[in-house]
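Notes continue from the previous slide.

Worked example: a multi-chain complex. Inputs as given:
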Amino acid sequence: MKILENLKYAKNHEWIKVEGDTGIIGITDFAQNELGDIVFVEVDTVDEDLEMGETVGIIEAVKTVSDIFMPVSGEVIEFNEALEDNPDLINKDAYGEGWIVKIKISDPAELDELMDAEGYKNYIGA
Amino acid sequence: MCKNKNQTNYKMKQTVFYSKHEALGAKLAPFAGFNMPIQYEGLVAEHQHVRAKVGVFDVSHMGLIYVNGPKAFELVQYVTSNDLALISDGKVQYSCFPNDKGGIVDDFLIYQINPESYLLVVNASNIEKDYNWLQENNKNIGAEIVNESDNYSILAIQGPLAMATVKKLTNEPVEEMKYYTFKYINFAGIDNVLFSITGYTGEAGCEIYFKNEDADKIWDAVFEAGKEFDIKPVGLASRDTLRLEMGFCLYGNDIDDTTSPIEAGLGWITKFTENNQFVNRKYHEDLKANGVEKRLVGFEMIDRGIPRHGYEIADADGNIIGNVTSGTQGPSVGKSIGLGYVKREMAKADTEIYIVVRGKLLKAVTVKLPFYKS
């Protein structure tokens, strides 16, 4: 199971990559593997201010549906449009082309509540 | 997963193929009290493989209950809705146990070995319930009921190349056997393997039943014989999408203790002939005569969304008219599909209905089954 060093991880299996005050969010390799074949991703929260833990979108896989939660609070500024036609990018490249949204982080202090790679590795028992 | 403090003494069962599944890297998960292979390389790939080539399901969790003796026919005829007199030795019949409250105890296949021996292949989750139900109804009849579930293993070999695979392992002309028939044959060097032309996928193929001690030998022989056909192990997740594309009911989802076979579209296994007096017959006969209030239908999504078990179904005004019992994205049909109960007047094909998905009304249309036509 791939876990990248330079990311922060939430308990609901989202990752966030911090670039200045912007955060790029996706779901982890572990999460995409658990969900299986992803059919579509729905995000209709662009331009909304969401709290940490709020639902930013959903992922429909063949066998189940799952919420995508905000790992930290912020304004949703972009949805990865490539997922509209190719939702399986998440299955193929969860940390790269399969990113889901970009947000403007409103409270950087919340990042400290997230796990680092080592912590997440222990969390999923990898 | 599944670590409930009430279940600390509960031991998950496994089939004899467990170590093979582990070695193959299967994702295992609890299903009907068994730790079962849900998928190996991936649900969609496995689904497509069964449609295109050949896949092997371990369905050893399923139950085998024999009803034997001079009273066997009488008991099975009485507890099942289909007319047992319609089959003969070597034939298989799909049937169900109606309960005494208008619902279904279980659905299953009946194998007539001879007029004094029937094998019922039942859902894993219902083995105990079925056994008890048979016992309860046997009080004044006196047939012999034997639960052999723990002693047998079952493989379902399914797909267009399934019969080419298995015919390499026997001298019997199995490719000439008709749908819903069975024989005891020598298979892969093992005597008395129950070889059945049945399945739950809509593809050609067979299901084979054998003693646990022969399981390893048979598994290895099947995979060796199927090598030239690209045979692969396939998991229960794809079994579910394959059956749903065919519109086959799954007990616990589409039928249960509260649904009549008449409501579930299983009128064809509910025979009101004179010689077929079965448990609670009058209730279902009245339903058929007076018309049902709800009916199981197939539907396809028009709006983007995937129906799931338990979602509500509404009309265009948002009035709730039923509920979804099964749903998925059908890999072979390329659409979101589902089964669900709706009010009778909404059950005609080509009726516009709405699925309540996360608070939104998503448009769908009722269709004739099956969804997948090969």
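Summary box: Residues 1-9 of chain B have pLDDT under 50 and may be disordered. DSSP finds eight helices and 19 strands in chain B.
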